[in-house]
Specification:
By secondary structure, the protein is mainly α. Helices cover 73% and strands 3% of the residues. Strands 1-2 form a two-stranded antiparallel ribbon.
């Protein structure tokens, strides 16, 4: 199987992880969704030069991965795959902002480099939190939670279809790449004209297969309503989960715990 097939399979593996039976898996999807949103808002609300204040927030994904029995290597691999987007966003910061903000020994660190590393940290935290949410809940359950919160059903349905048809697109791309490789004995590269033709054919084949899938869903009674196996019910566990993590996020947001601990340790060593 080529890389496209492997990436498609790995992406669907998150739904397999969501079928676990840990305490976190059994929580109501709405509780995990709200907690994740609060976490993301707290992380992105820091100013562009914050680095040390973001480090304590890693406690949230670390604890959820440990208690949920999720494969940390798999999640890290997925984060690294899309990390070039974050690098692209902040790569020009060191050029635009050259004002020295700190020194490490005799080396001056400009504000551009500080903001660049801040972007990377925020990217790691937010993307990891989103992947953990899907791995513990499942994308269908997340969409069902959005519906319960009053998000318009057409938007949620389109979001669900978009996620589902990613697999259709990658499956068709895998078939076309395999067919092209079987017909190109002398060269592995694809000419530009052939590449454009492949993209057009990929779109047509994907639309055709998506239409067949939709008709099959309608034949099986699909009416636009998202149904999940586990019922949604808010109990004291969900309330404690939301309030406990929210209190911690507020504490970490308005108190630089890492800086305070560093000052306490260095002060005690004097």
């Amino acid at each position: 199987m080529n890389n496209i097939g492997k990436n498609s399979f790995d992406l669907g593996y998150m739904d397999t992880l969501a079928s676990g039976d840990s305490f976190l898996h059994r929580l109501d999807p709405r509780a995990k969704l709200v907690t994740t949103l609060i976490f993301i808002v707290a992380v992105v609300s820091f100013d562009k030069y914050s680095i040390s204040a973001l480090i304590p927030f890693f406690i949230y994904p670390i604890i959820l991965v440990s208690l949920g029995g999720l494969p940390a290597g798999y999640l890290l691999k997925k984060v690294l795959i899309i990390s070039p987007f974050a690098i692209l966003v902040g790569m020009f910061n060191p050029i635009m902002d050259r004002q020295i903000l700190m020194h490490i020994g005799s080396i001056g660190i400009s504000g551009g480099w500080v903001s660049f590393f801040s972007i990377i940290l925020r990217f790691l935290l937010t993307v990891t939190a989103a992947l953990i949410l899907i791995s513990l809940t499942g994308f269908n359950a997340v969409c069902g939670a959005l519906t319960k919160f009053g998000v318009p059903r057409p938007f949620v349905t389109q979001l669900l279809f978009f996620y589902r048809y990613i697999f259709v697109l990658t499956d068709e791309a895998e078939r076309m790449v395999r067919a092209a490789s079987f017909r190109a004995f002398s060269s592995r590269s694809v000419k530009f004209k052939v590449f454009i033709s492949l993209i057009g054919n990929l779109l047509l084949r994907t639309l055709d297969r998506a239409e067949r899938i939709y008709r099959a869903m309608c034949c099986r009674g699909f009416d636009g309503t998202i149904r999940i196996i586990r019922s949604m019910k808010i109990s004291y566990r969900e309330v404690v989960f939301i309030l406990g993590w929210s209190a911690l996020f507020i504490l970490l947001r308005f108190n630089n715990v890492a800086l305070n601990l560093g000052a306490l340790v260095t002060g005690s060593l004097r």
